[in-house]
Task: inverse folding
């Protein structure tokens, strides 16, 4: 089915570039399909619901166990964790941050 669709698109573009039909007649439906697919994908993300929201109250992090920081490998941003809401690491720059535990130095 997708090959047939691509064949129709290529034939229509060829006809539009050859001057047989106006280019707008080819580009308008393609733009409509692109807008429709983005809309369907956006609404599909709402189907996920609130599964990503943590359950229960947040728990404070004990500083005696060490500092828990998260590091973004994309841009180098670092975040200090004071209260843990869930076990999943936060996202930054579109990717999950890496957890790092710093053990306090004892003298």
Result:
């Amino acid at each position: 089915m997708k090959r047939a669709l691509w064949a129709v698109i290529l034939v229509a573009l060829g006809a539009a570039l050859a001057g047989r039909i106006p280019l707008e007649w080819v580009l308008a439906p393609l733009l409509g399909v692109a807008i429709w697919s983005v809309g369907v994908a956006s609404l599909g993300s709402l189907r996920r619901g609130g599964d990503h929201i943590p359950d229960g109250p947040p728990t404070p992090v004990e500083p005696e166990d060490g500092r828990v920081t998260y590091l973004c490998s994309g841009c180098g941003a670092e975040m200090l964790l004071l209260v843990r809401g869930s076990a999943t690491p936060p996202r930054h720059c579109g990717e999950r941050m890496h957890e790092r535990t710093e053990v306090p130095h004892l003298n």
